[in-house]
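ok new one. same drill as before - structure tokens go in, u give me an amino acid for every spot. 341 of them this time. try not to just spam alanines like last time pls lmao
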């Protein structure tokens, strides 16, 4: 497994600490220091300690625990490595008793059993340290992979939801234009041009994580103008904008479904009760609402793909940062959305 800079930093800190401890021991020890002793203690034994550490780190843990799941075999190998390396150090010390079998800084001698037990303890320290560092690095790597997978999953789901939204909008708009063409309306060409502008935004300008709120408002305005074309008796829409519309960002195509739902299920031809769309934005909060009179002849109460789609997108993009309130009364339908932007 390829390790990153974090693993390198952790290893460097560990070995730097070991070196500092070794230097302090030498400096603070006034007796028992010989060139041969220091060479064996920090040279030969140092190589053995490093070998013990990385045999466990590179081979034993990945092979016996992670790949083969042989936990008892790993425990056996763990203690065998400590015993063997302690034995090697003890044999070397016995070969040079005048240097190695003397207690550092004291006028006393080790016996063989004491010396072996001490080196076994040191070996255990390096084996346990190896385990701690290995499992720590693996845990962080696993967490990073899980975060990346979750991010990729969220992005794929968002793209899927967005791919649903575009055909859903196009399907409804083409139905409207078909109706105009069927009636041989002079507005057909204008409707096609307006749809072209809207689709250009949906395809080319909305492929970023966020867009300027002003662009999203322009898109809503274009959509409203497109919808107005198909109503012979006129469509009555009140769009109110307040606050810092130009300075805020929003996930693209987040608001259109609410407006589309008003046209699809509401009454838009009553000048006494127009569809009211209100957008208020400041540095922290976007407040968006749509209120429309219900079409009592329209029995299609389902929200279709649109509202279900947008609520799922809100959950993915603004978790714990939005509040959606939908009121479906006997005469009116109200959608109120607040987003912490």
């Amino acid at each position: 497994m390829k390790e990153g800079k974090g693993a390198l930093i952790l290893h460097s800190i560990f070995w730097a600490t070991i070196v500092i401890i070794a230097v302090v021991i030498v400096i603070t020890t006034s007796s028992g220091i010989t060139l041969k002793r220091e060479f064996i203690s920090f040279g030969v034994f140092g190589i053995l300690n490093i070998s013990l550490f990385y045999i466990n780190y590179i081979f034993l843990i990945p092979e016996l625990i992670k790949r083969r799941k042989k936990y008892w075999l790993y425990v056996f190998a763990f203690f065998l490595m400590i015993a063997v390396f302690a034995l090697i150090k003890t044999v070397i010390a016995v070969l040079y008793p005048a240097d190695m079998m003397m207690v550092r800084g004291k006028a006393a001698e080790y016996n063989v059993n004491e010396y072996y037990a001490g080196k076994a303890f040191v070996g255990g320290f390096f084996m346990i340290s190896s385990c701690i560092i290995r499992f720590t690095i693996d845990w962080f790597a696993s967490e990073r992979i899980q975060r990346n997978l979750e991010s990729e999953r969220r992005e794929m789901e968002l793209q899927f939801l967005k791919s649903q939204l575009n055909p859903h909008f196009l399907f409804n708009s083409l139905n409207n234009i078909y109706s105009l063409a069927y009636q041989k309306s002079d507005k057909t060409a204008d409707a096609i041009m307006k749809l072209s502008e809207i689709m250009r935004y949906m395809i080319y300008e909305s492929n970023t994580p966020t867009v300027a709120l002003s662009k999203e408002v322009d898109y809503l305005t274009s959509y409203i103008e497109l919808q107005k074309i198909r109503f012979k008796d006129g469509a009555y829409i009140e769009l109110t904008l307040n606050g810092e519309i130009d300075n805020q960002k929003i996930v693209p195509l987040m608001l259109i479904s609410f407006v589309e739902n008003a046209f699809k299920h509401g009454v838009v031809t009553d000048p006494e009760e127009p569809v009211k769309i209100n957008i208020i934005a400041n540095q922290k909060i976007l407040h968006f609402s749509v209120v429309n009179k219900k079409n009592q002849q329209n029995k299609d109460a389902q929200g279709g793909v649109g509202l279900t789609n947008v609520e799922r997108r809100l959950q993915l993009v603004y978790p714990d940062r939005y509040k959606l309130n939908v009121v479906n009364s006997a005469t009116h339908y109200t959608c109120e959305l607040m987003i912490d932007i």
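The longest strand covers residues 285-294. and btw Residues 156 and 255 are 20 Å apart (CA to CA).
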